[in-house]
Every structure is written in structure tokens, then in C-alpha cells.
Design a protein that fits this description.
The chain is α/β, with parallel strands linked by helices. Helices cover about 50% and strands about 15% of the residues. The strands form 2 sheets. It has a 6-stranded mixed β-sheet with strand order 1-2-3-5-7-10, with helices on both faces.
Amino acid sequence: MSELVRVIKEDEVAKVFLYRPQAFNAFDLDMVRQFSECLITLSVDDAARAVVISGEGKAFCAGGDLKWASNFPRGPSAGFHELAARFHLAILEIRRMKKPVIAVINGIAAGGGFSLALACDFRVMARSATLRQAYTSAGLCLDGGGSFTLPRLVGFARALEIAAFDPPISSDQALAWGLVTRVTEDGLAMEEGIKMARQLARGSLHSFGWSKELLTDSFHTPFEAQLEKERTGICSCGAHADGKEGLRAFGEKRKPVFGGREIHKKG
């Protein structure tokens, strides 16, 4: 099997590149399998404190490979069934990962690539890049969690407009609508994404993980249950080494050093 996903580790940041540039990094079954397996591995890799996802070449990701699905031996419906099952495993891994995941949108992000970008915690977009929902223009519907994340980022009315009319969304429009976190000049998106990842990696991953989980679950958890989750979370943080370090640093009027770095050095 060819290498369709490449991982490069720089200090505490893992860069994940989708690697089918000849197909604009569109997912076929082999690629999505490698991608989900890569994310599962990184999720439990303590050396990787932040993950950056991008695409090789001119595109971020063109979504599912429609040519592959059209030629699937048992028909496109069966092809989408298998592809979506594995793609959704990857999306769930991103949402449940207890560390920050940043999409660096270096080029077109369409279809499943659009949903993948929205599933990440933060998005850095190159100025000339474009977002495109794309599904409905091919007679399909959103997958990859896009129907969940899109209305929560832009509101129901805007999400339905994007689904119905499928407009190409420029970087300026994406920033104005809250679809991306930052926009950079072309060629600088990865640099900005790595800078953001390193900043987050210096923070408390235990705190980040709890905050990410609480916010994600808040959309479908009753208020009383959410309050109890918050209480469980803050107690867990207070008992964790990062929480204890944060409290000490607050009392000593200094910046905290999270992740046990300084403690380990001192023995």
C-alpha cells in the first residue's frame, strides 16, 4: 500500500499531510484508513502535544474521491457506506482527542475536506484558498460531521444557505463568518499553524482536553447534567499536576510551566 498520509514531527507538534496531490488529496478507502489510523496513534502519543493537518500540493482536501465511489464494485452507495464509516472514525478521533488539532487550509477544501476542516479545533487559511461545501452540487448531502459543525459555527440560516446554494467561500468571507480562526498570506499558513500549535502545546493539555470535551458535549447535554460534568472536570483539573502547578504559579505570581517539564528537569 502506498503512503497516502505523511507525518512529520517537530518537537511537540505532529504535522499530518494528506498525500494524494494528483487527486487534490481526495479520500479513497486506502487513504481514509491510513488517516484514521494515524490520528488514533497520535491521540495516545504523549510526545505529540498538538496536531496540525494539511494537504500536500495545491489543495487541502477535495473530499471523497467521487471517481473512486462511482467505480466501486458494489455501486456508489456501498462505496460511500464504507468510505463514510472510516471517515467518521477519523472525525470522531479529532473531536475526542485531548489535544489541539489545527487545520492549515493551504488550498481548496471541498466536500469531506470542508467537513474535515470544520471538525478541527482551529483553522488557519491561506488568503487564496477557498472553502466549498460541494456535496449538494453533486446531488449528495453533508457528511463528516458537517451538518453538526456548520450551523454551530455560522447559525442555522447561513448553514442552510451554504448547503442550498453551495457558494465558493473566500478566505475573507470565511473569516467574517467565523468559519476560520485566522487568514494568512499565501505560503505562510503552515508557519502560522505551527506557531499556534506550539503556543497551545505549552499550555495544560489536561485543561484543554476538559474544555474541549465540555464545549463539544454542551450542545446535546441537559443543563443540570452539564453542570455536573463541569464540577467533575474542575475537580479533575485541580487534582492533576498541571492544576497544582497553575495554582502554585498563581500564588507565586509567575507563569506556570505545564506538562511536568520543569518538574522532571529538577527531579
